[in-house]
Amino acid sequence: MPEPGANVQIGSGYYMVYGFDKKPKLGTVIMKVDIFKGEGERDTSFQVKGDSGMPSMRGAHETGDRAFQLSRKGSYLLPIDIVMPGDWEIRLTILKDGKVFFGGRYNFDI
Ligand SMILES: [Cu+2]
Question: Residue 5 Cα, ligand 1 centroid: separation in angstroms?
Answer without folding.
Answer: 26
